[in-house]
């Protein structure tokens, strides 16, 4: 007798926020490619933002400015990479420019 192998879905479960966001966009006939263009980003970048995989504060704020309710978007991350400093020979040197 052969053992039957079942497929296992290893993707993380979609959260309720993302489902509500998709419903909100669909109700308003908003296409993600158009939304991406309005934000000046590529559609795959928008998908990563909407899923919460990436959470850049300025892009999320741009989506809010376009009228998407903040509660439907992921919480913005604090981008520490933009305001880094290093210490060289005891002197602090900002990497921001």
How is the topology of this model organized?
Elements: H1 16-27, H2 32-39, H3 43-51, H4 57-65, E1 85-88, E2 91-94
Antiparallel strand pairs: 1-2
Strand content: 5-15%
Q: Provide the spatial order of strands within the biggest beta sheet.
A: 1-2
Considering DSSP H and I runs of 4 or more, what fraction of the residues is helical?
Answer: 25-40%
Describe the global form: elongated
Mean pLDDT: 81
Radius of gyration: 20 Å
Number of extended strands: 2
Structural class: mainly alpha
| Assembly type | single chain
Order of helices and strands: HHHHEE
Number of helices: 4
Which consecutive residue ranges, at least 5 long each, have pLDDT under 50? 83-88, 91-97
What characterizes the major β-sheet? 2 strands, antiparallel
N- to C-terminal distance = 68 Å
Give a written overview of the molecule:
Helix content is 39%, strand content 8%. It is mainly alpha-helical. It has a domain at 16-72. The chain has a two-stranded antiparallel ribbon with strand order 1-2. Mean pLDDT is 81; it is low at 83-88 and 91-97.
Provide a compact summary of the structure:
The protein has 97 residues and is mainly alpha-helical.
Structure keywords:
two-stranded antiparallel ribbon; 97 residues; 2 strands; mainly alpha
């Amino acid at each position: 007798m052969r053992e039957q192998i079942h497929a296992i879905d290893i993707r993380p479960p979609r959260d309720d926020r993302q489902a509500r966001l998709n419903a909100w966009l669909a109700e308003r006939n908003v296409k993600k490619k158009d939304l991406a263009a309005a934000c000046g980003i590529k559609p795959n970048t928008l998908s990563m933002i909407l899923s919460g995989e990436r959470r850049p504060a300025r892009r999320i704020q741009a989506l809010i400015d376009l009228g998407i309710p903040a509660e439907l978007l992921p919480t913005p991350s604090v981008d520490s990479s933009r305001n880094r400093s290093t210490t060289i020979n005891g002197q602090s040197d900002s990497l921001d420019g």
